[in-house]
Amino acid sequence: MTQTTELVNNAPQTIDDLRRSETVNELVQRYDIVNKVQSAVNAGTIGNALGGVVGGAKLIFGTIFNVLTVLVLTIYFMASFERIKEAGYSLVPSTRRDRVRLLTDEILTKVGAYMVGAISIAVLAGLSTFVAAMLLGLPYPFALAVVVAVCDLIPQIGATIGAVIVSLVGLASSVSDGVVCIVFFIVYQQIENYLIYPGVMRRSVKVSDVAAVVAALLGVALFGVVGALIAIPMVAGIQLIMREVLVPSMDQR
């Protein structure tokens, strides 16, 4: 907690260190980053997203309000979850109620296993970042690890956001540290996306590696962040229904 506070408080100093870095300034001039950012602002890309200072404040407080709303609704939902399930089961004909109950409980178990798997992957990303930051001697290694772990829970863009934050801190320390951070996250994200993530999901949700990767990609492409969150549990549920319902019904014909 202390390191996180120090990281936030020293953010202006970190930005100032980046501005004073000759290598960073050379890269900014070589790739004309300032003019590109200014063009984006003039085109309304950033201005429309934030709407100035007032828009930025609204965005921040709106996000906080939405998070609190979801948190409160989640607590109420979990408190009455069993009653909601029983009410739903009562709408099913009594002859099929036990079967539906078993299938639903199994699907919910897979959803819970998916969440545990996602948290485990995020913790592993945080631990890897902590080790890398300690080896490089970066300031606030624990805070940086927490930032990466939390960001890793955000589908599609979270891992990139965490990598950018740590890489900027590395660049503020030295150019070599920044380059090492960038290379580390490029390599680690490839390993996470194609080895760790499918492997964890195969063991926790019992979805094949190919199905996990394809489901995640299709979910992001079709429904964005929401699609990424529900893709693998949905595939697990479909596989269960096919195995327990469709296949037996076809065998009886």
Task: Outline the fold blueprint.
Layout: H1 2-9, H2 11-20, H3 22-30, H4 33-42, H5 45-50, H6 52-79, H7 81-90, H8 94-136, H9 141-152, H10 158-173, H11 175-204, H12 209-251
Task: Describe the model.
The chain is mostly helical and 253 residues long. The protein has a domain at 96-253. Helices cover 89% and strands 0% of the residues. The longest helix has 43 residues, at 94-136. The chain is elongated.
How many strands appear in the DSSP assignment?
A: 0
Number of H/I helices: 12
Secondary structure class reads mainly alpha
Overall pLDDT level:
75
Summarize the helix and strand pattern as letters.
Answer: HHHHHHHHHHHH
Low-confidence stretches: none
How far apart the termini lie comes to: 63 Å
Rg, rounded, reads 23 Å
Strand content: under 5%
**Main β-sheet description:** none
Brief digest:
The protein is an all-alpha fold. It has helices at residues 2-9, 11-20, 22-30, 33-42, 45-50, 52-79, 81-90, 94-136, 141-152, 158-173, 175-204, 209-251.
